[in-house]
Inverse folding.
């Protein structure tokens, strides 16, 4: 079943009078529960595609469908609500809120929605995620007291706290050493298996690309390869699902 | 919302120095305005009270006789009808004072000085001694009929010592030249404004110099138990006296004219026979003090506004800087699901807390300064004694003024932070996340 579908998506940035095409008509389908890598060199359009899937940027033309719902006509408030309810984000620079400690950073997205969960249930879930990412001893620490790998673990827990269907990770290993980067990808993969959350991560690191089930390779804003477990897949999601 | 408040508070804590400087600027403004408000609040009360002591009363009755030549003689000849009327009324009266005064020239050792000399019955007005700061001599010396109390400045200028006798050249109540002699009983500290203007002598001797008959005097003063019922009591007394004695009207149609001036004008323009009485109050005399207080209050509001325009510029600049520093953070929380309104609220809460912190600190500092100033005994010889209560500064802060200042601070702080907060809220998440801090 396709949870994300991009239909001939183009993105053009306007830099003064110059138009810079970042994505030049991209179509693909992502299945629910997949572990996807969007790979390609710098400037290939990885981040732009992730931003459009993450509803923090809008396509110049084409359509991004999340869980079958077109998003190009949605207003900012609806996009924000959808981001909160459906998506989780992991950033290259971790982007934790510096004034909050580990526990509070993870809790933060839970306080934004209208759905109210009991305090005990919330605390139990956050503690579980902290344990899952191996930061139990660091739960009261502020981001500046953590290593890069630990910060990214907090970001992973924060991305998962609202139990989103999709987690987007933009070069999650770029600011980490290779060993820590691999651990982070392994952690994401494990959570993907355990929670059946769809993970989409971008990378230009060939070593970690292959861990993904589904690989989409980009070059100059175009897809050069779209394979799922070694088999090329079609651009459109199967209909009738 | 609670999380936004929580983050706003923590953000303030993140940049302690900046937050405290900003709150400090607000606190300074509030402190100044609160001090002015507090001072002007007690200003009227203190001035009225001090004047009531100096003038020996809250309500005054003065007799005026018009001669055939059109001149006015000021005296009260038979006060029985006045006293009977006063006593028949249920006025909050403490006591009645009788005074006469004239302006004459004191002459001693070849030196001359003009001086207003007040004659009072010291056996009844002994409370007045408590308000004088005797530097030399004694109040007991006033038992001497020709005794006089002078301020230090006057005594120094005439090179007078206790027991020295001086001449006084003055006019009787009918305008004839007269000479008298005083003996210096005491020297009092010079409170400046009023002190050097008046010297104090015995009523009988002053009346004798004015050529008034026994039982006659110039001004009757009614000393009330408090300041509040002055106008009501004056109206009651005026109504009771109407029909019994001739009275100057108390209404002034001309708003440009001071009430007392209007009565003076009546004395010049109108004709009558026998004694006609003027009834006026301390409020009538000091109506301009209230105007001064209104000016002070307006000035404090203007100061508040000017200070806050300056502070607002500071707040706006600071929040613009804060916004630029936190662009990625804003992008992150927007990506995580915070609505534009949430970002706006986050910044506005931060500004609100700075404003409230500044307001509280300003109010507290003003309170401390007021308490310290109140503890200081400035004495009765200070030029500002007329503004003090028994030598102490007093402050009266009205709740509405505090609330008004709070509202002004809150509104201006939020207004100052509004533009940067809106810019922060309108940042595109993708653009904000691309920014390298």
């Amino acid at each position: 079943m396709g949870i994300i579908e991009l239909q001939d998506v183009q993105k053009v940035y306007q830099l003064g009078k110059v138009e810079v095409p970042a994505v030049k008509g991209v179509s693909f389908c992502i299945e629910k529960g997949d572990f996807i890598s969007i790979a390609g060199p710098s400037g290939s359009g990885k981040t732009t595609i992730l931003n459009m899937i993450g509803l923090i940027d809008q396509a110049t033309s084409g359509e991004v469908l999340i869980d079958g719902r077109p998003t190009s006509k949605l207003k900012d408030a609806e996009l924000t609500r959808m981001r909160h309810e459906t998506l989780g984000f992991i950033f290259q620079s971790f982007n934790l809120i510096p004034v909050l400690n580990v526990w509070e950073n993870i809790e933060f997205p839970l306080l934004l929605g209208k759905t109210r969960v009991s305090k005990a249930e919330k605390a139990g879930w956050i503690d579980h995620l902290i344990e899952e990412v191996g930061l139990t001893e660091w739960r009261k620490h502020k981001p500046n007291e953590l290593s890069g790998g630990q910060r990214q673990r907090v970001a992973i827990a924060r991305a998962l706290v609202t139990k989103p269907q999709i987690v987007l990770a933009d070069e999650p290993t770029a600011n980490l050493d290779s060993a820590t980067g691999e651990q982070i990808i392994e952690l994401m993969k494990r959570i993907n298996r355990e929670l059946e959350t769809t993970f989409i991560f971008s990378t230009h690191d060939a070593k970690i690309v292959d861990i993904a089930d589904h690989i989409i390779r980009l070059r100059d804003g175009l897809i050069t390869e779209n394979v799922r477990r070694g088999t090329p897949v079609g651009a459109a999601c199967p209909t009738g699902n | 919302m609670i999380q936004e408040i929580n983050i706003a508070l923590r953000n303030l804590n993140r940049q302690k120095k900046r937050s405290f400087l900003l709150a400090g600027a607000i606190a300074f403004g509030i402190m100044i305005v609160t001090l002015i408000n507090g001072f002007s609040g007690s200003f009227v009360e203190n001035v009225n009270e001090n004047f009531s002591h100096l003038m020996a009363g809250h309500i005054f009755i003065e007799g005026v006789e018009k001669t055939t030549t059109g001149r006015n003689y000021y005296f009260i000849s038979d006060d029985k009808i006045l006293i009977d009327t006063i006593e028949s009324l249920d006025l909050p009266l403490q006591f009645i004072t009788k005074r006469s005064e004239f302006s004459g020239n004191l002459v001693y050792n070849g030196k001359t000085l003009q001086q207003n000399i007040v004659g009072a019955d010291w056996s009844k007005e002994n409370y007045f001694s408590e308000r004088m700061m005797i530097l030399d001599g004694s109040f007991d010396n006033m038992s001497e009929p020709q005794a006089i109390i002078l301020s230090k400045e006057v005594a120094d200028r005439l090179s007078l010592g206790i027991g020295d006798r001086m001449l006084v050249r003055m006019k009787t109540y009918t305008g004839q030249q007269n000479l008298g002699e005083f003996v210096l009983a005491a020297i009092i500290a010079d409170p400046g404004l009023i002190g050097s203007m008046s010297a104090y002598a015995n009523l009988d001797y002053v009346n004798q110099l004015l050529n008034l008959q026994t039982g006659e005097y110039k001004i009757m003063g009614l000393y009330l138990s408090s300041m509040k019922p002055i106008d009501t009591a004056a109206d009651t007394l005026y109504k009771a006296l109407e029909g019994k004695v001739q009275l100057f009207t108390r209404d002034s149609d001309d708003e440009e004219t001071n009430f007392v001036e209007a009565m003076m004008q009546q004395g010049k323009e109108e004709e009558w026979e026998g004694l006609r009485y003027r009834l006026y109050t301390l409020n009538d005399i000091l109506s301009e003090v209230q105007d001064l207080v209104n000016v002070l209050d307006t000035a404090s509001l203007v100061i508040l506004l000017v200070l806050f325009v300056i502070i607002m510029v500071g707040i706006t600049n600071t929040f613009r800087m804060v916004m630029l520093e936190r662009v990625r953070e804003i992008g992150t929380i927007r990506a995580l699901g915070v609505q534009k309104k949430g970002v706006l609220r986050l910044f506005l809460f931060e500004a609100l807390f700075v404003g409230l912190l500044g307001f509280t600190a300003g109010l507290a500092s003003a309170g401390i300064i007021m308490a310290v100033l109140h503890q200081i005994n400035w004495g009765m010889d200070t030029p500002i004694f007329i503004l003090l209560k028994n030598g102490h500064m007093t402050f009266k802060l009205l709740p509405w003024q505090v609330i008004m200042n709070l509202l002004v601070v809150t509104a201006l702080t939020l207004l100052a932070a509004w533009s940067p907060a809106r810019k922060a809220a309108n940042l595109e998440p993708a653009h904000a996340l691309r920014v390298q801090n």
Remarks:
- Chain A is about 30% helix and 30% strand.
- Chain A touches chain B at residues 51, 54, 56-57, 76-77, 80-81, 83-85, 89, 91, 93, 95, 97-100, 108-109, 111-113, 158, 162 (CB under 8 Å).
- The longest strand of chain A covers residues 2-15.
